[in-house]
Protein backbone atom coordinates (compact mmCIF):
# COMPACT_ATOMS: atom_id res chain seq x y z
CA UNK A 1 0.00 0.00 0.00
CA UNK A 2 1.33 3.43 -0.96
CA UNK A 3 1.33 5.42 2.30
CA UNK A 4 2.22 8.93 1.08
CA UNK A 5 -1.14 10.55 0.34
CA UNK A 6 0.21 13.07 -2.18
CA UNK A 7 1.96 10.43 -4.29
CA UNK A 8 -1.40 9.08 -5.42
CA UNK A 9 -3.34 10.34 -8.41
CA UNK A 10 -6.84 11.66 -7.88
CA UNK A 11 -8.25 8.49 -9.40
CA UNK A 12 -6.31 6.42 -6.89
CA UNK A 13 -7.54 8.57 -4.01
CA UNK A 14 -11.09 8.14 -5.26
CA UNK A 15 -10.63 4.38 -5.26
CA UNK A 16 -8.99 4.11 -1.83
CA UNK A 17 -11.03 2.39 0.88
CA UNK A 18 -12.11 5.13 3.25
CA UNK A 19 -13.52 3.04 6.08
CA UNK A 20 -11.59 1.67 7.81
CA UNK A 21 -8.87 4.22 7.28
CA UNK A 22 -7.19 7.30 8.76
CA UNK A 23 -5.19 10.19 7.32
CA UNK A 24 -2.34 11.58 9.45
CA UNK A 25 -1.26 15.23 9.30
CA UNK A 26 2.10 15.98 10.97
CA UNK A 27 2.27 19.53 12.36
CA UNK A 28 5.38 21.30 13.57
CA UNK A 29 6.73 24.85 13.65
CA UNK A 30 9.50 27.03 12.27
CA UNK A 31 10.87 28.80 15.31
CA UNK A 32 14.03 29.50 17.26
CA UNK A 33 15.47 26.59 19.21
CA UNK A 34 18.29 28.21 21.09
CA UNK A 35 21.78 28.80 19.70
CA UNK A 36 22.31 25.13 18.82
CA UNK A 37 19.22 23.71 17.07
CA UNK A 38 17.79 24.77 13.69
CA UNK A 39 14.54 26.63 13.17
CA UNK A 40 13.06 23.51 11.54
CA UNK A 41 13.44 21.31 14.64
CA UNK A 42 9.73 20.78 15.33
CA UNK A 43 8.89 20.32 11.64
CA UNK A 44 11.72 17.77 11.27
CA UNK A 45 10.60 15.86 14.37
CA UNK A 46 6.97 15.77 13.24
CA UNK A 47 7.82 14.59 9.74
CA UNK A 48 10.43 12.01 10.76
CA UNK A 49 8.31 10.52 13.54
CA UNK A 50 5.29 10.04 11.28
CA UNK A 51 7.38 8.50 8.51
CA UNK A 52 9.09 6.12 10.95
CA UNK A 53 5.71 5.19 12.46
CA UNK A 54 4.41 4.28 9.01
CA UNK A 55 7.46 2.08 8.42
CA UNK A 56 6.49 0.18 11.56
CA UNK A 57 2.81 -0.02 10.66
CA UNK A 58 1.40 -3.45 9.72
CA UNK A 59 0.65 -3.69 6.00
CA UNK A 60 -3.04 -4.36 6.56
CA UNK A 61 -3.67 -1.05 8.37
CA UNK A 62 -5.46 1.46 6.12
CA UNK A 63 -3.60 4.71 6.78
CA UNK A 64 -1.94 7.49 4.81
CA UNK A 65 0.20 10.48 5.75
CA UNK A 66 0.17 14.05 4.45
CA UNK A 67 3.16 16.37 3.98
CA UNK A 68 4.18 18.10 7.19
CA UNK A 69 2.49 21.39 8.05
CA UNK A 70 5.76 23.12 8.90
CA UNK A 71 4.44 26.43 10.23
CA UNK A 72 2.71 26.69 13.58
CA UNK A 73 1.51 29.05 16.28
CA UNK A 74 4.83 30.20 17.69
CA UNK A 75 4.21 33.63 19.14
CA UNK A 76 5.88 32.62 22.41
CA UNK A 77 9.12 32.80 20.40
CA UNK A 78 8.59 36.13 18.70
CA UNK A 79 11.50 38.50 19.15
CA UNK A 80 14.03 35.89 18.04
CA UNK A 81 15.02 36.42 14.38
CA UNK A 82 13.93 33.52 12.19
CA UNK A 83 10.77 32.52 14.02
CA UNK A 84 7.92 32.35 11.48
CA UNK A 85 4.71 32.35 13.51
CA UNK A 86 1.18 31.85 12.21
CA UNK A 87 -1.68 33.48 14.03
CA UNK A 88 -4.14 31.17 15.76
CA UNK A 89 -6.82 31.98 13.18
CA UNK A 90 -4.47 31.22 10.27
CA UNK A 91 -3.41 27.83 11.59
CA UNK A 92 -7.00 26.98 12.43
CA UNK A 93 -8.01 27.95 8.90
CA UNK A 94 -5.31 25.79 7.34
CA UNK A 95 -6.22 22.73 9.42
CA UNK A 96 -9.91 23.23 8.75
CA UNK A 97 -9.40 23.57 4.98
CA UNK A 98 -7.34 20.38 4.88
CA UNK A 99 -9.99 18.57 6.91
CA UNK A 100 -12.79 19.82 4.64
CA UNK A 101 -10.90 18.59 1.58
CA UNK A 102 -10.42 15.14 3.10
CA UNK A 103 -14.07 15.00 4.13
CA UNK A 104 -15.18 15.85 0.60
CA UNK A 105 -13.00 13.02 -0.69
CA UNK A 106 -14.85 10.60 1.57
CA UNK A 107 -12.42 10.10 4.45
CA UNK A 108 -13.91 9.67 7.93
CA UNK A 109 -10.89 9.95 10.22
CA UNK A 110 -8.12 12.52 10.63
CA UNK A 111 -5.20 12.33 13.06
CA UNK A 112 -3.10 15.39 13.89
CA UNK A 113 0.39 14.53 15.08
CA UNK A 114 1.72 17.62 16.80
CA UNK A 115 5.40 18.26 17.59
CA UNK A 116 5.12 21.83 18.93
CA UNK A 117 3.69 22.53 22.37
CA UNK A 118 2.41 25.96 21.36
CA UNK A 119 -0.03 24.33 18.91
CA UNK A 120 -1.61 21.95 21.40
CA UNK A 121 -4.48 23.95 22.90
CA UNK A 122 -5.53 25.26 19.51
CA UNK A 123 -5.50 21.80 17.93
CA UNK A 124 -7.52 20.32 20.78
CA UNK A 125 -10.21 22.88 20.04
CA UNK A 126 -9.97 22.23 16.29
CA UNK A 127 -10.51 18.50 16.70
CA UNK A 128 -13.72 19.13 18.63
CA UNK A 129 -14.92 21.72 16.11
CA UNK A 130 -14.22 19.46 13.13
CA UNK A 131 -16.10 16.63 14.79
CA UNK A 132 -19.10 18.90 15.32
CA UNK A 133 -18.98 20.57 11.91
CA UNK A 134 -18.03 17.73 9.57
CA UNK A 135 -18.65 14.55 11.53
CA UNK A 136 -15.00 13.60 11.14
CA UNK A 137 -13.48 11.44 13.83
CA UNK A 138 -10.47 13.55 14.84
CA UNK A 139 -7.51 12.53 16.97
CA UNK A 140 -4.75 14.68 18.45
CA UNK A 141 -1.47 12.95 19.32
CA UNK A 142 1.70 14.35 20.89
CA UNK A 143 5.00 12.50 20.94
CA UNK A 144 5.18 10.28 24.03
CA UNK A 145 8.46 9.09 25.57
CA UNK A 146 9.60 7.85 28.96
CA UNK A 147 11.66 10.74 30.32
CA UNK A 148 11.66 9.45 33.89
CA UNK A 149 15.44 9.03 33.94
CA UNK A 150 15.99 12.73 33.37
CA UNK A 151 16.68 14.89 36.43
CA UNK A 152 13.58 16.44 38.02
CA UNK A 153 14.59 19.94 36.89
CA UNK A 154 14.83 18.72 33.29
CA UNK A 155 11.50 16.91 33.48
CA UNK A 156 9.82 20.08 34.75
CA UNK A 157 11.60 22.80 32.78
CA UNK A 158 13.49 21.16 29.91
CA UNK A 159 10.63 21.91 27.55
CA UNK A 160 12.41 23.59 24.64
CA UNK A 161 15.72 22.60 23.02
CA UNK A 162 16.82 20.89 26.23
CA UNK A 163 18.16 17.37 26.71
CA UNK A 164 15.30 15.54 24.97
CA UNK A 165 14.95 17.63 21.81
CA UNK A 166 18.70 18.01 21.44
CA UNK A 167 19.19 14.24 21.73
CA UNK A 168 16.48 13.60 19.13
CA UNK A 169 18.15 15.99 16.69
CA UNK A 170 21.60 14.53 17.38
CA UNK A 171 20.13 11.22 16.25
CA UNK A 172 18.11 12.47 13.28
CA UNK A 173 20.16 15.33 11.85
CA UNK A 174 23.50 15.61 13.69
CA UNK A 175 24.88 17.91 11.01
CA UNK A 176 22.30 20.55 11.93
CA UNK A 177 23.20 20.60 15.64
CA UNK A 178 25.68 23.39 16.38
CA UNK A 179 28.61 22.74 18.66
CA UNK A 180 29.57 23.43 21.35
CA UNK A 181 26.24 22.83 23.00
CA UNK A 182 25.16 25.68 25.31
CA UNK A 183 24.97 25.27 29.09
CA UNK A 184 21.75 24.51 30.93
CA UNK A 185 19.17 27.25 31.24
CA UNK A 186 16.30 26.80 33.69
CA UNK A 187 13.80 29.56 34.45
CA UNK A 188 13.74 31.06 37.92
CA UNK A 189 10.26 29.97 38.84
CA UNK A 190 9.52 30.11 42.52
CA UNK A 191 5.73 29.83 42.40
CA UNK A 192 4.26 26.82 44.15
CA UNK A 193 0.85 27.37 42.59
CA UNK A 194 1.39 28.20 38.91
CA UNK A 195 3.24 26.20 36.26
CA UNK A 196 4.65 26.70 32.77
CA UNK A 197 2.93 23.75 31.11
CA UNK A 198 0.34 22.29 33.52
CA UNK A 199 -2.76 23.89 34.95
CA UNK A 200 -2.92 26.27 36.73
CA UNK A 201 -0.69 27.84 34.10
CA UNK A 202 0.84 31.27 33.64
CA UNK A 203 1.11 32.71 30.12
CA UNK A 204 4.78 33.21 29.24
CA UNK A 205 7.12 34.19 26.47
CA UNK A 206 10.49 32.53 26.03
CA UNK A 207 12.30 35.83 26.52
CA UNK A 208 10.79 36.08 30.00
CA UNK A 209 13.34 33.52 31.17
CA UNK A 210 15.82 32.62 28.42
CA UNK A 211 17.74 35.22 26.41
CA UNK A 212 19.40 32.36 24.49
CA UNK A 213 16.04 30.78 23.66
CA UNK A 214 16.29 27.33 25.27
CA UNK A 215 14.91 25.73 28.43
CA UNK A 216 16.84 22.74 29.75
CA UNK A 217 20.30 21.18 29.53
CA UNK A 218 21.46 20.52 25.95
CA UNK A 219 24.90 19.41 27.16
CA UNK A 220 23.42 16.24 28.67
CA UNK A 221 22.09 15.11 25.27
CA UNK A 222 23.57 12.13 23.42
CA UNK A 223 22.52 10.64 20.10
CA UNK A 224 22.09 7.13 21.53
CA UNK A 225 19.41 8.33 23.94
CA UNK A 226 17.82 10.29 21.12
CA UNK A 227 17.57 7.16 18.98
CA UNK A 228 15.92 5.22 21.81
CA UNK A 229 13.42 8.02 22.45
CA UNK A 230 12.71 8.40 18.74
CA UNK A 231 12.00 4.70 18.24
CA UNK A 232 9.80 4.64 21.33
CA UNK A 233 7.85 7.66 20.11
CA UNK A 234 7.43 6.32 16.57
CA UNK A 235 6.31 2.85 17.61
CA UNK A 236 3.81 4.29 20.07
CA UNK A 237 2.45 6.46 17.27
CA UNK A 238 2.18 3.43 14.98
CA UNK A 239 0.03 1.71 17.60
CA UNK A 240 -2.25 4.73 17.83
CA UNK A 241 -2.56 5.02 14.03
CA UNK A 242 -3.59 1.38 13.81
CA UNK A 243 -6.21 1.84 16.51
CA UNK A 244 -7.50 5.09 15.03
CA UNK A 245 -7.96 3.52 11.59
CA UNK A 246 -10.88 1.44 12.87
CA UNK A 247 -12.02 3.60 15.79
CA UNK A 248 -15.77 4.14 16.15
CA UNK A 249 -17.88 5.94 18.69
CA UNK A 250 -20.39 3.71 20.41
CA UNK A 251 -23.11 4.04 22.98
CA UNK A 252 -22.69 2.06 26.17
TrEMBL record:
Transmembrane segments: none
Keywords from the UniProt entry: Hydrolase, Metal-binding, Zinc
InterPro entries: Creatininase-like_sf, Creatininase/forma_Hydrolase
Group of enzyme by EC: hydrolase
MF terms (GO), sorted A to Z: creatininase activity; hydrolase activity, acting on carbon-nitrogen (but not peptide) bonds, in linear amides; metal ion binding
Enzyme Commission code: 3.5.2.10
Pfam families linked to this entry: Creatininase
Cofactor(s) it depends on: Zn(2+)
GO terms for biological process, alphabetical: riboflavin biosynthetic process
Coiled coil: none
Protein family: Belongs to the creatininase superfamily.
PANTHER family named in the record: 2-AMINO-5-FORMYLAMINO-6-RIBOSYLAMINOPYRIMIDIN-4(3H)-ONE 5'-MONOPHOSPHATE DEFORMYLASE, 3-DEHYDRO-SCYLLO-INOSOSE HYDROLASE
Protein name in UniProt: Creatinine amidohydrolase
Gene from which this protein is expressed: crnA_1
Amino acid sequence: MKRAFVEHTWKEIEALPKDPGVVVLPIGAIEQHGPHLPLCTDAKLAEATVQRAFEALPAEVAAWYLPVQSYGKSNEHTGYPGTLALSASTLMGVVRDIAVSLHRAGFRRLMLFNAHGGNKALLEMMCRDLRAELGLLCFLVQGQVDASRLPPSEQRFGIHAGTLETALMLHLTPGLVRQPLPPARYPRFDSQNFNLTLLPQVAWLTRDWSPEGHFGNPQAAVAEAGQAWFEEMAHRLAELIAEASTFEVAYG
